[in-house]
Structures are given as C-alpha cells and as structure tokens.
Amino acid sequence: MSRPDEDVDCYLSVDGIEFFRQRNGCKFNAMNPTYMLPSDDEESKGDWAVELNEEIPWVFVTGVDIVPIQLREVPVRCRFEIWNIAMPDMPYDDAYFDLIHARDVLTGICNYPQFLGQVARILRPGGLVILIKPDLVQYADDKSEDEWMLGSESGPRGWFTLWETYRNCLTLLGVDVTVPQRLRKLLEGTGAFENIEDCRAMIPVGFYPEDKRVLTVGQLQWMAHDLLLPALRSMFLSSGMVESRVDQIIKDAQTDLYCGNTFGLSSHLHIVHATRREE
Ligand SMILES: C[S@@+](CC[C@H](N)C(=O)[O-])C[C@H]1O[C@@H](n2cnc3c(N)ncnc32)[C@H](O)[C@@H]1O
What we know:
- The structure is a single chain.
- The chain is an alpha+beta fold.
- 33% of the residues lie in helices and 28% in strands.
- It has helices at 47-55, 112-122, 145-150, 157-173, 183-190, 212-231, 233-238, 243-258, and strands at 10-14, 17-23, 26-29, 61-65, 78-82, 97-103, 123-140, 143-144, 193-204, 265-276.
- The N and C termini lie far apart (58 Å).
C-alpha cells in the first residue's frame, strides 16, 4: 500500500493555470493522461528550440509542449506554446512550418497516424520533418530481448522485465509501442511525404564502450535511465499493479543497470526524416 499522502492527486498552477498534477511525490502534466513521465524542470527546458535559434538566428522557432517550458530567458525569435499535439486539429494554418522536429514524444501520442496527418497539413510542400524515437525494445550484448528469451542464458532479466512492463502499461494507455520501428511505413502511409530516410543508431547504456565519444553517450544514457526507472513507478502503479511488485521490478532493473559492464546494454534510436510532397 502507498502512504496516504503519496498517491493523492493535487494540482499545481503556474500563473493561475493548473498545468501540473502531483502524484506519488512526482510532478506530471495535467493535460495529457497518456504521457505519464514526470514533467520536471530538466525535461521541459526547450533546449532544441533554443539551440536551433542560436545556431540559425534568422529563423523563427516555435516550441510546443503540454507544460510550460521552464526557461528564464526566451530568445526573441523563439516562442513556446502549450498544446497537446495528440489533439486532432493543431492550431496552425496549412503549410505554416518549414521544418517540424519531434523527438521522444511518442508516449504522449495514441493515434500516431493522425499526428502525422497533422504534420503533413501544417508543413509546407518541400518542408522537412524530422522524427526521433527510441525503440522500446532493449538489447544486451547486441542481442534483442526476444533473442535472449529464446536462448539458454538468462541475460539481464530484471532490465528486460522492466521494459516489458513499460510496454504493457503504454499499450494499456492506448500507445502503439511499435511506432519507432514503423516510422517509415507510417510516413509512407500518409501519401504526403517523399525522400523518406530511416537511420538507426545503436545507443549504449553504460560505461562499457571503448571509444571515448561513444563512452560519453553511454554515460549520458546511463544517467538518463537511472532517472527513468524510478520515474516509471507512478505509471506502473496506475496500471493496477501492486506496489511491492512494482518496487521489485524497478529494483531488479536497477541491479542490471548498476552492473552495466556485465551485459552491454543498449537501445536503438530511430532518426527518420522526409520532405513534404509538393501537391
Ligand atoms: C522525453 S521529453 C523529450 C523532450 C525534448 N523533445 C527532447 O528531445 O529533449 C518529452 C516531452 O514531450 C512533451 N510531450 C509529451 N506528449 C506531448 C503531447 N502530446 N503534446 C505536446 N507535448 C508532449 C512532454 O511534456 C516532454 O516535455
């Protein structure tokens, strides 16, 4: 059982508007019920929008999120808007943007084809869409979860069980967990895009890579996953699992993460880009 003060919802407001919901001691968005990762300051910094604006100062950048972006100073040619991109009609005119970039927002979108339909509508003909999604299937020593399950060795079971639980919870919420590996097909399915390129990158999680630059990626991913594991607790509890089971799943996954050199943990990142077909 959770402590009575822990899992009770309360709403937190910014400028009088209740953008956040507090549950199990974490802060979540109040707008999109399927996006169940905490909305902490680290996550909603708007880095990509600001960096693009700094690198190409003559462009105008619009950053969209379900929560207010936590920035002290917003560059002049950059603005942040609050909108749930899972809604069927985005508040932008047809052909409004030259470039649309969406990174790691899958878990907040149940109807991905509908989202792509909106992207096609608000992107100008010839405009570029860049979609970046990590795979929700994990790898150890370059073998997928399924390959480990078929083999005789046990592998990092705790790690795999956590990811299986995460996928099951997302599926219960109506999120299609196979979207990352099907992005090309989904873009093709709209009939609105051409020059579709699907690049896949292996992303290490841990301190085992020998190459210095790859090692840095592994370290950053390790830190990101160290934060992700406890952040999933609330989602798992909301799916109806008992608290002791949830805590055990997270603990076992942490054990595998913390002895990350035993198995080379990794995930795949899909970086897919395409241009809006001219009418
Ligand atoms: C994992 S973070 C990634 C942040 C950023 N895109 C990046 O790559 O650094 C996901 C962000 O997407 C936002 N988000 C999730 N679902 C969304 C939705 N349906 N509409 C708008 N923003 C959403 C979350 O609030 C969060 O800030």
